[in-house]
Design the sequence.
């Protein structure tokens, strides 16, 4: 295990963490501001991946496919918010969980009906299909560098939106104290709709960008939802800054665990034991991180209502 391998895994963890941030940022704002547990957020990620994969296949334009994925998913999310989610704002969390879990089942069946049950293999843009020589001995996939760059740009844009605009001020006010924001005349319904659409757009963007390096398949939204929930718990519900820091931590810990734990265990344990124990320990690394953070800071690293 040399320094180049370690650096490569750190880049992989950074890219994964930034994609988690795109999903978790919208989810934490929806929960923090609207006090609504939207388990169907992962389905919006899945929708973005499917639309991007199909549009890219049909048009050959990756940028156009990403744009189409975001626009279509935001439109679907707006309809979903109008017809279903809006009626859940004043309901308790159990009702919200049950209703949005039902949306997950409907979304999975809708994908099966439209695109079939077989996974899609989304292609990488031709211009980014090869590696980039970062330095001697480390060729790194160009597309993964795009993921890192896009994630950082979106994180910067979201930071500026939340902290330097009037819209961001309303979002932060709602996350900190929703009732007081209502008393001060904030149009909470409009803020809710904007936040829900913003979260959907970020989830769709993550799905579209992740499609070429993962299998686009039914249920992919549920698989990514668990790490995203871990991120918002670690970061602090309603905090974009917390989601960013926590996503990077989870991405790095998860990637490092899967890359470094199995070979480390093989060095001290029998191969048969290490083969079973390594993946198991790597799979729970982010939960160990969450438990450690909550032990020290029960409200998360940067709680919005601190």
Sequence:
């Amino acid at each position: 295990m040399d320094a180049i391998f370690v650096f490569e895994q750190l880049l992989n963890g950074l890219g994964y963490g930034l994609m988690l941030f795109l999903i978790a940022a919208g989810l934490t704002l929806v929960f923090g501001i609207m006090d609504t547990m939207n388990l169907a957020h992962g389905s919006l990620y899945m929708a973005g991946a499917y639309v991007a994969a199909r549009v890219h296949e049909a048009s050959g334009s990756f940028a156009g496919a990403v744009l189409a994925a975001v626009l279509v998913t935001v439109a679907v999310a707006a309809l979903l918010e109008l017809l279903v989610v809006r009626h859940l704002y004043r309901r308790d969390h159990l009702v919200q969980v049950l209703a949005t879990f039902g949306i997950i089942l409907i979304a999975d069946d809708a994908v099966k009906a439209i695109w079939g049950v077989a996974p899609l293999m989304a292609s990488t843009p031709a211009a980014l299909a090869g590696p980039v020589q970062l330095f001697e001995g480390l060729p790194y996939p160009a597309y993964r560098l795009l993921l890192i760059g896009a994630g950082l740009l979106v994180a910067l844009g979201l930071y500026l939106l939340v902290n330097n605009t009037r819209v961001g001020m309303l979002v932060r006010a709602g996350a900190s104290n929703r009732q007081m924001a209502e008393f001060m005349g904030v149009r909470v319904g409009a803020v809710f709709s904007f936040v829900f659409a913003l979260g959907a757009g970020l989830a769709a963007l993550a799905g579209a960008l992740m499609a070429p390096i993962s299998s686009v398949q039914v249920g992919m939204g549920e698989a990514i939802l668990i790490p995203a929930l871990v991120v918002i718990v670690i970061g602090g519900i309603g905090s974009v800054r917390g989601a960013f820091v926590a996503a990077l931590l989870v991405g790095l810990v998860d990637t490092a665990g899967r890359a470094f734990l199995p070979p480390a265990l093989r060095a001290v344990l029998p191969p048969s034991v290490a083969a079973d124990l390594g993946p198991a320990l790597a799979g729970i690394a982010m939960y160990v991180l969450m438990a450690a953070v909550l032990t020290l800071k029960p409200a998360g690293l940067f709680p919005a209502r601190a």
In short: The CA atoms of residues 124 and 213 lie 8 Å apart. The chain has a mean pLDDT of 86.
